Amino acid sequence: MDPTWGQALDQALVREEARVPAGDRWLFYQTALTGPARRAWMAGWPPPAAGAWVDWGTAYGALAVEVAHQYAVRVYGVDWSRARLSAAARWEGAVPHRGQVWWTEADALSFSPPEPVVGMSARFLLQHLPDPAGALAHWAAVLEPGGVLFVEDVDDGWTVEHPAPPPAWAAVVEALSRLQRDRGGDRQIGRRLPELVTAAGLELADTALAVQGARVSSEAFRLSRQLEVLRMEGERDALLAGGYLTREAWQEGVSARASASGPVFMSAGTLRLRAVKPPASSAPPSRQISPVC
């Protein structure tokens, strides 16, 4: 993928910043800042057969546009948030690309495009779903034999920071993990992805542990810290209302994080995998999945 085109995409996305709700800023910045790493991963993807693509949990749509451009295909960018899809549709128009993107407000456990699907992608979505196995079973049923699925997701067990973060901030991070678990999510889903994918009837083609680790400067640490705090602020009301944290504990944690200084060693790991749907003669029968209300 042309680096100049990728830079134009990132710039178009950043221009949407002022219209992003405060609670969603962390997701927006994460999308914008991970562009180069995301496109480097895509550079190794084999081209799909003729047909459509689905990007599940597309959010602000960067990956959907990148797939459309790289393969000149029609991509269904699927998300439950109409606001995110509207933002994606606005900035997409500023980046000419070779394919088509149809922004689709739908559920990841029920949407089926009206045409053959030969490719799918899902980044950082399964960790949030109460039924990731059901989602993968539905995706496998929608995917054409020989079609390919690319998945990336987190595992907090592969995250390291040294020196360790302040205890008050660690308490905030743990509170968010408990909130996500109570919602049915899993911050350690990375290690489970291979078994979940194969249980859905797909064949693993390759897996890779993507670990980014470095001794970062004070400035780089400051930017990373700001993104982390933004993510927590997006869930602050839910954390306080659910009793996961007191207001005092929240403020203490944020203040402690703000006062921490670098340089530090930081690493974060995600699991990336590619899976293929076997020929129809060897594929197990699909099961019916009820939509999530």
Would you mind describing this structure in some detail?
The chain has helices spanning 3-14, 25-33, 35-42, 62-71, 82-92, 132-142, 167-182, 193-199, 218-234, 236-241, 247-259; strands at residues 52-56, 74-79, 100-105, 117-123, 143-154, 160-162, 203-216, 264-276. The chain is of the alpha/beta class and 293 residues long. Strands 1, 2, 3, 4, 5, 6, 7 and 8 form an 8-stranded mixed sheet that branches. α4 links the parallel β1 (52-56) and β2 (74-79). The longest helix is centred in the last third of the chain and has 17 residues, at 218-234.
Q: How many beta-strand runs? A: 8
Order of helices and strands: HHHEHEHEEHEEHHEHHHE
% residues in beta strands = 15-25%
Helix-residue proportion: 40-55%
Low-confidence stretches: 283-293
Mean pLDDT: 89
* Head-to-tail CA distance between termini: 38 Å
Shape: globular
- Number of helical elements: 11
Question: What does the main sheet amount to?
Answer: 8 strands, mixed
Class by SSE composition: alpha/beta
What Rg is obtained from the alpha carbons, in whole angstroms?
19 Å
